[in-house]
Specification:
The protein is α/β, with parallel strands linked by helices and 325 residues long. The chain has helices at 2-26, 44-60, 75-82, 96-105, 113-116, 141-150, 165-177, 189-198, 208-216, 264-278, 281-288, 299-320, and strands at 33-37, 64-68, 90-95, 117-132, 156-159, 182-185, 203-207, 221-225, 251-259, 293-294. Strands 1, 2, 3, 4, 5, 6, 7, 8, 9 and 10 form a ten-stranded mixed sheet that branches. Helix 2 links the parallel strand 1 and strand 2 (64-68).
Length: 325
């Protein structure tokens, strides 16, 4: 009998919390929202956040204030969000680096991605493109693999830093092909791209928008994209999976997160409004100029995706002993 009374009380409490969450969602939002960006103004994450923020303010009837909190591979911004009130007024434009990579290469962090942050929706994916210096005698992915196998250790591939998606893309390529290339980290994608153009390195897995102008000018040669599907920014380029590396997929991605204590009702409302924003043609057009492809997945699908990405990067990071600079 006592067990039944306790069970009834728990069920009643759950009902109360459910209706409280629904009531809060109906009134949400009734003040401005804060969108934290783990990057300085002017970067890709900032650009996407400001586009989404402006459109969200229009459909939700409240201003969305972008708050740039750069540093420590995005972990500062993620930590602030994880410790926020959980009322849906503090959002994070999380990216693959801060959400699934940095937590595994930094020794001590004050938050746990899978425990302290709740996924809302995958906003956009930005594929990398495999590019080589024109002096490299390879016009396809297969030819590059053959060259790397014939001359192990001769080719250098650059990245925007240890643990960056551009670095992990190269390590995944080496593992998938059984080749050996030397990793050369730079302080950012810009310096790495300049080094590739100058011939200091021969290979790079670079953000697609940043290198396409150099490809069109003949300063670099593009061999394929790293995403699961071809990119709308360069539909003529095959995926690496199409080029023989079946299952190879790695992209930089951006998504909205809130504190884990945020109610599901508020998260669902945020998802629905953001999904509407991402389907608007002007957002699609502006994203495409950055090589970004809008997604707008459900919270459940995004949660599954984040956990899959976490597992994928765990293997790459552990197998290659990757640590933060």
């Amino acid at each position: 009998m006592e067990f039944m009374r306790k069970l009834f009380r728990l069920m009643w409490l759950a009902v109360i919390l459910l209706f409280a969450g629904m009531a809060a969602a109906q009134d949400y939002p009734n003040k401005s929202l804060r969108l934290i960006v783990p990057a300085s103004p002017g970067g890709g994450a900032d650009f996407l956040a400001r586009i989404v923020g402006i459109k969200l303010s229009e459909v939700m009837g409240q201003s969305v204030v972008v708050d740039n909190r750069a540093g420590a591979s995005g972990t500062i911004a993620a930590d602030i969000t994880a410790k926020s009130a959980g009322d849906g007024y503090t959002l994070l434009m999380g990216q693959s680096t801060s959400i699934v990579i940095a937590p595994q290469i930094y020794q001590k962090l004050n938050y746990d991605t899978l425990r302290d942050l709740k996924p809302v929706t995958l906003v956009a994916e930005v594929p990398n493109v495999l590019v080589v210096h024109p002096s490299v005698p390879a016009n396809s992915v297969k030819e590059l693999i053959a060259l790397a196998k014939a001359k192990p250790g001769l080719l250098n591939f650059g990245s925007s830093g240890n643990g960056a998606p551009t670095h992990l893309a190269g390590e995944m390529f080496k593992t998938a092909t059984g080749t050996r290339m030397v990793h050369v980290p730079y302080k950012g994608a810009g310096p790495a791209t300049n080094a590739l153009i100058a011939g200091e390195i021969q290979v790079m897995f670079a953000p697609i928008v940043s290198v396409l102008p150099h490809v069109k000018a003949g300063r670099l040669r593009a061999l394929g994209v790293t995403s699961a599907a071809r990119s709308a920014a360069a539909p003529e380029l095959p995926t690496l999976s199409e080029s023989g590396l079946t299952g190879y997929e790695i992209s930089s991605w951006f998504g909205l997160f809130v504190a884990s204590s945020t109610s599901d009702a508020v998260v669902d409302k945020l998802y629905r409004e953001t999904s509407r924003v991402l389907k608007s043609q002007d957002v699609i057009d502006r994203f495409s100029k950055e090589g970004a492809e809008p997604v707008g997945s459900t919270p459940a699908h995004f949660n599954t995706y984040v956990r899959q990405e976490y597992v994928k990067y765990t293997k790459v990071i552990k197998d290659n002993g990757i640590k933060a600079d």
